[in-house]
Amino acid sequence: MTDTKRDVFEQLLNAYQNLISKDNDDENYRVNITTPLNILYDSALPDDLPVIPELIGKYLIMRKHDRGDLVQALDEGTSFLLDGTQWESVQDWFWFSDVKDSVDTFARAWVLGVWRVEETGEIVKLEEEK
User: Fold this and answer.
1) Residues 6+ apart with CB under 8 A from 60
2) Looking at the record's lineage, which domain of life comes first (predicted)?
3) 73 touches 110 (CB < 8 A)
């Protein structure tokens, strides 16, 4: 699922607007509209997903698959070869980028396991381990 909580709220709002435009006093009808949306809302992604560059996302995925931890990812982010592109230092983005609080942004993406790609707007969600 890539719907955010805001997306689900808008679906609920549309359903409500459709409901009030109809002349229907059936309580079960109202419950049948809201119950599935409540379930969707509970599983929806946060509205304020962290936004990170694609290459940083690839680095995050690589470190997660290596079963590294966040401290290692922040500490060892130098001179990795990602998709044939030499990233002189992933730490440059952490410490010297124009992104305000880039370390915090990376940490949020790490903990949530989901982020938005800066260049494309695509939502990337890590697969849960089995």
Assistant:
1) 52, 73, 106, 109, 110, 115
2) Bacteria
3) yes
